[in-house]
Amino acid sequence: MTNYRPMALALLCGLGCTVLLSAGVSRLERDKVSLAFMQRAHARLFVLQQGVGNALAGLNSVNQLFASHQEVTRTEFRLFTRPILERAPYVQGISHLRLISHAERAALEAELAAVIPGTALTEMRDGRPVPAGERASYRVIDFIEPLAGNEAALGLDTAWPALDGGARQQSYDTGLPTAGKLVPLAQGPEPRLGVVVSMPVYRFGAEPADPAARRAALEGETAMVMRPGPMIEKIYAAAGVRASMGLNLKVYASPTQDPQALVFEAQLPPPAQATLPRWLYRGEPARMEQPFDVAGKTWLMTASQPDAVYVSDHLASLFTLALGALVSVLGAAYVHTLASRNRDVQRRVDQRTAELKDVNRAMRLRERAIESNVNAIIITDGPPGYAMAYVNPAFERLTGYSSAELVGRSTRLLARDDLDQPGVSELVAAAREQREGHAVLRHYRKDGTMFWNDVYVSPVRDEHGEVTHFVSFMHDITAIKAYETELHHQSTHDALTGLPNRVLLLDRLRQTITHSERKGHALWVVSIDLDRFKFTNSRLGHKGGDRLLQAVAERLQLALRPVDTVARIGGDEFALMLLPEQGALSPRADQVQRVLDCLAAPLLIDGQELFFTCSAGIAVYPADSADPGVLMERADIAMYRAKEMGGNNYQFYTPAMNEQLGERMLIEGALRTALERRELVLHYQPQVDTASGRIVGMEALVRWQHPELGMVAPNRFIPLAEETGLILPVGAWVLRTACAQLMAWRAGGAVDGARDALRIAVNVSARQMAEPDFVQSVADVLAETGLPPACLELELTESQVMNDVEHAIAVMHEVKKLGVLLAIDDFGTGYSSLAHLKRFEIDVLKIDQTFVRDLTVDPDDAAIVTTIIALAANLKLDVISEGVETLEQMAFLRQHGCRQMQGYYFSRPVPAAAFEAVLAENEAHAAAQGRSVADRAAGQAI
Prior knowledge:
The chain has 28 helices and 35 strands. Helix 19 (727-747) packs parallel to helix 21. The chain is an alpha+beta fold. The strands form eight sheets. Strands 26-27-29-30-31-32-33-34 form an eight-stranded mixed beta barrel, surrounded by four helices. The protein has a five-stranded antiparallel beta sheet with strand order 4-1-7-6-5, sandwiched between helices.
C-alpha cells in the first residue's frame, strides 16, 4: 500500500486542479459569449442609427433646396430627391407641404389635378383619405417623391386631424427636423403605419432668430415618411447584417417597451446545433436595452441572448475537463513509475558521483594549465554558430576584451570589417572541413589598434567522433611582421629619398607591361640624370647633396600623376614610368618636358639658391622592347645621348644610339690618355676691333687630334670630360698653354709693343669654378707664365654662374682681386636676372651667335641684340659679338654700337702657327693703313 500512496495523491491533486481549471475556463467562455452578444447588439444599433441618420441628412438637403431657391419646380424636386431615395430605399416618400388659406385651395387643387387628374384636397378619417372639409387654412402635400405608390398622399391636408402630438410645433420653433408618433398613412401597403419626420420651410431670404420670428416666416415644411419595420429590415439588408444572428432583437418607437409601439422584431430560430444542459452552466442570459434618438424622438432597442447553451461555445472547458482527467491518470501512473525507479537512480547517482569527482580533479588540472598559458587560447562552439565559449587570461591581455564581452560572440569580432584576408578564407575552410588550420591575420584590439595574430585552429571531437568545438592558439607576431615589412621596404625603396628603387621599378614595369599588353597602349621608361651634379655636390658637401637629391625626389613626385612611378636608381640618376593620360594610347612629350621644367626652377638648399638642369632619355614599350631590363638600358643610352647634346633636354632611344654609346665609351677611354699623349691642341680665333680693324684679343679653343678618330669636335668630348671630371686637368692645361702662348706672341712682336695690349679669352667650366683652389691655380699660372692679369679674360657661361649664384659671386670677387678680366659667355641663353647681373663683377658681355646668325632677317633677334648692346653700355661693360659671318651682320652691329667681334667673317679658329700669320698680317695691314693716313695728312699740310 505504501507504494501506491504517491500515485493516489497525484491522482486526487490532478482531478482537483482539473475541476478548478475547467471552472475558470467556463467563466471565461461565458464572458466571451456575453461580450460577443454585446458587440453584435451594439453593431446593429450603430447600423440602425447610421441608416436613420443618412435618411435625415437627405431630408435636410431637401429642406436646403427650398431655403436656397425662391421657387422650386416639380422637375427640380424630382431630380433632387432621386439620388436621396436611391441611397435610402427604405424611405416611403419625401414630400413638400405648403401652408395655404381657403382662398388658395381652388388654385392648388387645379395645380394638383394637372399632375394627377381628379386630384383634390383630402384628409384622413378612420384610417383612409376622404375629401377635406372647409377650413381657414390647410397644410397640403403638394410635392411627393416617388409619386408612384404615393398618389394617395398628393393633396393630403396633414393639419387635420392633428396626430403629431405637438412635434410639428417644436420643429417650427427650432427649425430642426422632428419625428412624430406612429400614425396611419394614406399610401403604401398594409399595415399603413409610419413615422413622419418634418422640417419647417421659411420664407425665402428670411433669417428668423427666435420662435416668434420663425412662426411668422413659416411657409410650409419638408417631410419624410418612414415605415419603421420595412425601414429597419432594409437598413440591415443594405449593411449586410442579419438582425437575428445570435440574439433576439426588438425596436420600439417609444422610450419604453410599449407593445403598441413595437415596430420591429427579429427572433432567433430554434437551435440547429448541439446544446448542453442548462444546469451545467449556471447564469442568466445577457440582455441589452438601449434608447436612441430619431429626429428628437426617443426610440428603444432591446436585445436578449438565447437560453440555449451551445456546445460550440464551451469546447475549451469541455476539452480542459477531459484532458485534465486524462493527464491526471497518466500523471499518477508516471509518479508510480518514478517511485519504482527512484531506488535504481539513487544507486547510479552514487556511482556517478564518485566518477565525477575523479573527472573534476582532471578538469581542474587542465583548466589551471590553460589559465596559466602565456599564449592566447579560445574555445569556440561548433557549427553553425562558432561562438566563443571560453577565453583564457592571456587572450584578455592580448585583445583588451574581458571574457564577459567575448563569450557568446563570433570570432569575427577580432577582424571587424577587415575580412578580405587570405587567412580568413583558410580558417573558414578548415572549420567547414573540420580539420586543423593555420593562418596569419590582421586582428584588432578593443581600443582599435591592429596587431598581427598567428592562429592555429584544431577541432575537438566527442566520443562519437563528431566535432563539437574548436580550440585556437594565438600568438602576437606584430613585431616580427613590422621587421619583415621594414626589410621588404628597405629592399624595394631608396633609403635617402624613400622612392622605389630599381628592384621595385622593374617589378612594376613587369606588371604594367602585362596590363598595357591587354589594353593595347604604350608606356615610357624615362632615365633622368642631373647635369653637373658632381660639381654641385662638391660645393654643397655630402649632406647638402643628400638634401638636394631629396628635394629633386619631391619635385619629381609633384610633377607626376599618382599612376606614374618615379624611382631612384643610384647617385643622381632617377627613372620614371609614364602611362598614357585618360583616353590616350601613349604618353606625350609634354609630360617629360613638364618634369624638366619643374626641376629647372630655382632651388634653395642650405641658404644657397641653386639652378640646375637634367638630361632625360626615353625608351618606349613596345617599340623599343618588351623586357623591363632592356627598356631601362635603352633609356640610359638615350639619356647619355641627351648629355652629349649639352644637357637640359630629352632624347628618344634609336638603334643608332648603340653605336654612339660605343663611340662614347671609346672617346672616354681615349680622353683619359689624351693629355699624356699630347693629343690636345689649342686653336685661336681673333677678336677684332672693327673701328680700327686691329686684332685686340683671341679666344683659346681646345681641339683633340686623335690618331685614329682624327679631329674630334669639342661637343663630342667636352660634355664627357665634365661628366667624368677630366675637365679639371684639361682646363688647367688649356689655361696654362694659352697664357704661355700669349706671352710667346708678346715676346715676338714688333718693338713698338703693339702686342702688349692683346688679351686671351679662356673658357672655364663649372667643375673648375667649384674647386676650392681654382683662384689660386689661376694666380699660379699667371705667376708661372708672367702674363699680366689684365691680359687674361676668363669666360663663364651664364648657366653655370646661375647654378650657384652666391658661390659664383664669391669666386668672381676673388678673381677680380687678381686683376683678371671676367666675361659672361653666351649671354641671353640662360635665365639670369638684372638683379644678379648687377652683382656680378664682370667686364664683358658676349652676345651668343644664335642671336647674331639671323639678326638681319629676324626682327626678334635684332631687338635682342640691340637690347644687350644697350644694356652693356648702361652698365659700362664691353660687349663682343660671336658668330659674325657676313658683312651685313658686321655693319648692323657697328651701327648699333658693338665694336668688338669674332667669327668666320674675320677668321676661323686656327692653330697657333697659323694664328701667328693672321696676327702678323693684321699688324702689317694696320701699319700700312697708318702710313696712308699719315701721307694724306702731310699732303693736306703742304
